[in-house]
Amino acid sequence: MRIRVSQLYLYRYQCRSVTTAQSVCDTDLARPYSEVPGPRPIPLLGNTWRLLPVIGQYQVSDLAQVSRLLYEQYGNIVKLSGLIGRPDLLFVYDVDEIEKVYRLEGDTPYRPSMPCLVQYKSKVRKDFFGRLPGVVGVHGEPWREFRTKVQKPCLQLHTVKKYIKPIEDVTEYFIQRMQEMKDENGDMPTDFDNEIHKWSLECIGRVALDVRLGCLDPKLTGDSEPQKIINAAKYALRNVAILELKMPFWRYIPTPLWSRYVNNMDYFIEICMKYIDSAVEKLKTKDSSSDLSLLERILVSEPDPKTAYVLALDLILVGIDTISMAVCSLLYQLATRPQEQEKLYEELVRVLPTADTPLDAINLDKMIYLKAFVKEVFRMYSTVIGNGRTLQTDMTICGYRIPKGIQLVFPTIVTGNMPEYVAEPEKFLPERWMKQSTLYESFRIHPFASLPFGHGPRMCLGRRFADLEMQILIAKLIRNFRLSYHHEPLQYKVTFMYAPHGDLRLRMEPRTSS
Known about the structure:
Elements (H helix, E strand, L loop, with lengths): L1 H13 L5 H6 L37 H12 L2 E4 L8 E4 L2 H9 L11 H10 L1 H4 L10 H16 L1 H5 L2 H18 L10 H17 L16 H14 L1 H6 L10 H29 L9 H8 L4 H30 L2 H14 L9 H5 L2 H13 L6 E4 L4 E3 L2 E3 L4 E4 L1 H4 L47 H18 E5 L5 E4 L3 E4 L4 E5 L4
Parallel strand pairs: 2-6
Antiparallel strand pairs: 1-2, 3-6, 4-5, 7-10, 8-9
Helix pairs in contact: 7-14, 9-10, 9-20, 10-11, 10-15, 11-13, 11-15, 13-15, 15-20, 16-18
């Protein structure tokens, strides 16, 4: 297997001399789109019936399993057509073909968006969003122009590094709260995932709104502002699949689900405006030579606070639940993999000689195993089921002529575990990501098999902050405590993200040596 993977790598990279024209237009030998395999639609209900409760063949609540079933039944390319109210979905499992699509997509790639969010931004609240409605659920020139305005401060390492200390402060207080909330056995409470959401929101609020929202207050009530933000984010993201894949009645009549979705989004706007207006006032009295935060840099370069409003909304909307669920998965894997946890602890002791050694960019860069562990968890248990694109031109994929407008789905939850692209994928080996490791060459992975943050111009805008938050939490926690898990194993399930489902009752025990 290892020899075959190495040979495939050599072949792939030798073949990259093929021209763009050949890649896109080699239609002479291609088969028609109508012949792409996939489940056959039936009259009136198409394939939508397959996604309905009880009678449906595929359950929307387990999209990860649906992605695997389609591959097992039909192969490397699968057409799911006849979805009422939306275009066909074309699942592509050939990673070389996925790479080809990414490399030919240009400066303004179209990503299959959340129609419900598009409807909200472009119609329901067009008065607020206007011509540049952000980066989430936006395409073409409006997306490119808005992203250009905010990309530099969001992705510049100099700006990201400013938040090491603020996020470390939030995390240290969160770990203190963890010690207070554990029971007599040292286990976390049954609602620990909600506590992680509070930590995540506190970090995002510090980055996007320049404030400490007070999410970690032990006396926080269910109707408090932070908890209402968390609830709204969960609702908005976790109902996307229901709004988009089932009967889209919400497009024509205000269903209860759609009405609540709109109310949640309105609440996000209200919160963002409140805190950013406050930041604008503070900026007026701030020394212009002072080191500016991310929000302040955007407000200085874009005097209209609307840009900051929309960016903050996008960051909070997609950031709270995604980072929280990713952390739930990372902590569960650490707690159930003691050998890997000890390797990480040994690295942290080398990098952080004492338990209270403060974090900085230099010592975070030295945490090679930590970063590799995160990548390996995301490979085997990808928090994102898949990425996707809407074709902007006709293209040949897997030997079929695929017309413009088809929505491609790249199921990273499947491709990251395929032996064709990952040597011995069933083995959990962070070392496969570490060039310093002797296992690196033997267990290499195709660079396009696992892309949890996407690729190219539409790669996740907040990925550097997400990485920073996760790395700081894991480093501070494992340097000082041992995690374990002593309950029934948790199964992974899709909400909006793919994460352990059930009570995350991790056990937290202080390390005897510091």
